[in-house]
Amino acid sequence: AALAAAADRAAYGAAKSAVLAFTRSAAVEQARHGIRVNAVCPGPIHTPALERFVPDFDFYRRQLPMGRPALADEIAGVVSFLVGPDSSYVSGVALPVDGAMGARLPAPARTAEELMS
Fold first, then answer.
1. What is the pLDDT of residue 105?
2. pLDDT for the residue 2
């Protein structure tokens, strides 16, 4: 919500954007102490809550560039990288972990049948 907008979600998006601004500021302020600050920006994660929130889960899934939402372990793996030694010079970033959702251009509305072909 900090990286893209949705109708009727202005307050939510503003709050998420504030988290990213805070991430950058904290990274700059804490760098001299060797403290790294980053934000992970996940796309949809396959949870029971997502399945309840999405009325037609199969249709939704087919619209995702990777054809599925993330697994919780996939997000955890990115967090593990960010806290580990391989990312020792990474700080102040907002890292999308969204299966290419942020990279895609919007497509015209498509029906479930069109997505299946």
1. 80
2. 87
Contact between residue 39 and residue 23 where contact means Cβ atoms under 8 Å apart: yes
* Beta partners for residue 96, in sequence order: 41
Q: Which of 1, 13, 16, 61 is catalytic?
A: 16
Among this protein's residues, is 60 annotated catalytic? no
Give yes or no for a contact between 59 and 114, defined as CB atoms under 8 angstroms apart. no
- Give the number of other Cβ atoms within 10 Å of residue 39's Cβ: 20
Q: Which of 4, 12, 67, 104 is catalytic?
A: 12
Is 17 an active-site residue?
A: no
| CA pair distance 3, 12, nearest whole angstrom | 12
- What pTM, to 2 d.p., does this model score? 0.84
Asked if residues 28 and 92 have their Cβ atoms less than 8 Å apart, the reply is yes
50-102, pLDDT tens digit by residue? 989 999 999 899 889 999 999 999 999 999 999 999 999 999 999 999 999 99
Task: Match 């997502």 to its residue by tokens.
Answer: 50
